[in-house]
Structures are given as structure tokens and as C-alpha cells.
Amino acid sequence: MVALDGAKHRVDSIASNMGHLLGTGLLDAEESELVARRLTAPGMAGGFGLRTLDAASAGFNPLGYHTGSVWPHDGAIAVHGLARAGLHEAASPLAAGLVRAAAAFDHRLPELFGGHPREHYARPVPYPASCRPQAWAAASAVAVLLSVLGLEADAPGRRLKVRARVPAGYESLRIDGLTVAGLPIGVTTDHTGRVQLRAPEGFTVTVVD
Fold this sequence. Notes:
Layout: E1 3-4, E2 10-11, H1 29-40, H2 72-84, H3 88-104, H4 135-149, E3 152-154, E4 159-163, E5 174-180, E6 183-189, E7 195-198, E8 204-208
Helix pairs in contact: 1-3, 2-3, 2-4, 3-4
């Protein structure tokens, strides 16, 4: 259930808010995989990110504020949760959609934009009253980057974790300006997608597949 109608009847729909449960520990592995399949189905993943409502829903409107549009921070939360749940293959196309949309907006992601399908639209459709840039949308870039890299930091324990390789499309990256415990770290990926992490002295780095 996602809402109550005017007569207080339940409204059952497939919506993006289920993605906020991923990676929290509230779902078991089977439930997480079910949510992942829902979020990455064509009705939810239109090619420019995660729609707020499935395109097959009766109330779907690609320019509806919460009824089919794409909110970058909403999709980034789902991407981050999928990565934390170990569902990297599901996270990858949603992350790629947001990166694709960001390029169309000169890398200044708006608050939200239209949930029109990429197969019919070369660029995401702007939402008429959307703020751009917008703080939540800007922060989504950080969540997506951390998810793609699998980068996790435990400052008190002096530990860092990172993926061995990034998905296709994220090769030859260089990320500077990151800090942990006030100390600088850097990440690069080569042309094969292999990740190299420059960590402060005294930190233990764990590389995971």
C-alpha cells in the first residue's frame, strides 16, 4: 500500500519507496532480490533513473510530482541500498541512468525530471518547476559514486573497503578531495575498470569482488 484514496481505501501500486528498505537489514536476501527485480523492471527503470511509480499503474504520469517522475536522490538511495545488499548487477543500470541524465543536465541534476522512457526520448524531459541545481540531487552523486566503488569507511577502526572493479562505463575515473578521519584518500580506475585506492598510512584496505 502506498496511499489512501478519498474514501480511505487502500491504493496498491509499485512505487520507488520500497527501495529505501534495501541495505537496512529489514529485508532478508529473498525479499531484497524481489525488491531489486521490481525496481529494475522496465516499468520502474525508464533509462534515466528510477521512476517514483510504475508506468503500468493507473495513476502514472511521467511529469507527476510523485506519480511517475524521477527524483535523483530517490534513485540514489535505491542504488546505495542495492549495493549494500550485494545486488550490484541490479544497482548498475539504475546508477547508469542517473549518470546519463546528469550529462543531459550539464551535470547539475535538478530536483526531479520526467519519467519518460529513454527508448522514445533522447534526453530526460525537464520538470517545469524543478529547482536546478538542488541539494538533494547534488548529494545523490556522492551516493551513486560510493555505491559504484563499493567504498565504505570505518574511521575509528581505521578500515576502508572498496570493490576490485567498477561496472562497465566507469573506467578511467579519478576521484580526489575525499577524506576519512580528516586524512586524504584518492581513488582511480584504469581502462579495465580495476580500482586503486590511495589510503592514509595506518589504514587497512579490504578489496572485495
